[in-house]
Amino acid sequence: MSGSGQGEQQGAALGVSFGTAMWLAIFLHLVGVEIYLNLTPAETHRLRQVSYQKQLEAGLPNPGSAGLTSDRWGDSLPWAPSERHVEMATHSAYESERQATHSA
């Protein structure tokens, strides 16, 4: 019975390292996303427009700046959606309302 505790020790070693590896992976992904967004301003702008559209459709009180945005927490200029996106948002809201009234 000399090897009966070896499996338990291996399991404990894996359990300890798994938690550390998980936190390290989460940290690396968070840092990686921030670096990616800072290196790709066009993608950052596109994602901000998509977020604005979804917040507008959800009826949030301050669409485009409803979360942790750099203009609320940092020192950047206030953000405003592009004109094309505002027109698309009002058109899609109008179409949704029109379809709801016709189906009722």
TrEMBL record:
Name the source's superkingdom. Eukaryota
Listed Basic and acidic residues bias regions: 82-104
**TM region positions:** 20-39
| Ranges for region Disordered | 58-104
Q: Which UniProt keywords apply?
A: Membrane, Transmembrane, Transmembrane helix
> Is-annotated flag, keyword Membrane?
yes
Stated name of the protein = Uncharacterized protein
Q: Which organism is it from?
A: Ceraceosorus bombacis
